Amino acid sequence: MYIAANQYSGSTLLAFLLNTHPEIASAGHTIGWQGLSPEFLCSCGAQLRDCPFFTAIRRHFEEAGLPFTFDGALPTKYSISRFDRLDRIVFDNLPKLRSATLERARDRLVERIPGIRHRIEAADRANVTFIEAALDYAGASVYADNSHSPYRARRLAEISTFSVHPVHLVRDVRGIALSTHRNLGWDLEFTALHWVRVQEQIVRVLQNTPSFADCAAEYDNLLVHYEDLCDRPQAVLAKVVRPIGLDAPEGWTSFKSAEHHILGNEMRFDAGTVRKSERWKRELPRVTRKAIEARCRDYARKSRYCDALTQILDPMFGG
Ligand SMILES: [Zn+2]
């Protein structure tokens, strides 16, 4: 299972909840990030180098003869350099082009370049090894990756070892705008525009990936709204796992009792109960909320993915 999302959308919370299911294992943000180190505290409270889960992962890599370190991005990341911008052009979105056809052509082109093909094959092997090790450790059958980028979901779907079921996690853009403004200093309206572009990108990639075509045809089936997840976790989680043939256990709303080794934000140390963050309702003035809505609606109206974007926006702003 793959969770595609904008940052600050509650993907760490969703990973915790999914990881509580006996058949599901998740390490959360499975590709690491710049600045990750062996001293980083896993959600189990141990440093990564001492955590039993990540020790088991490292052992599987050693047995497979593959490198594995906790310094920055993990070997599971599709990457050719330490420069994020270059990696984005090779593996993610082509800036400003917004074309599924050109992105597919780019994918076929880079796969023909021997040096890049070698890196893709190495990352494929690393992903298979990581996921098999995580499932083995947890005694689970489904792995949940919340690494955000839909392009990663597409890459993973090309590995024949497993099948990928995508989920598109959405949080109210006004909450995203406030979180991004507070954490990164971004302008609120600029964040709203960036957010709606990311939503369009996720829709475009999922709808244009052949193995996702069936489930993405009724796009609402892929959508998980963070606010719904917090209000009705049992029902929403049941909807998330039904397509992969799993039942939802009773009382699936508290997650502290299970063993977790999740790479994610600071909520990994929370009390283990679902708490909805809606600070924006207190802090964003009405005029700013209206401006954010106008930005998103205007963008969606002109998009060729208008239908799916409307399904994303209506629950926030009213249809
Ligand atoms: Zn751990």
Automatic annotation (TrEMBL):
It comes from the Bacteria. Gene3D superfamilies: P-loop containing nucleotide triphosphate hydrolases. This is Sulfotransferase. It comes from Rhodovibrio sodomensis.
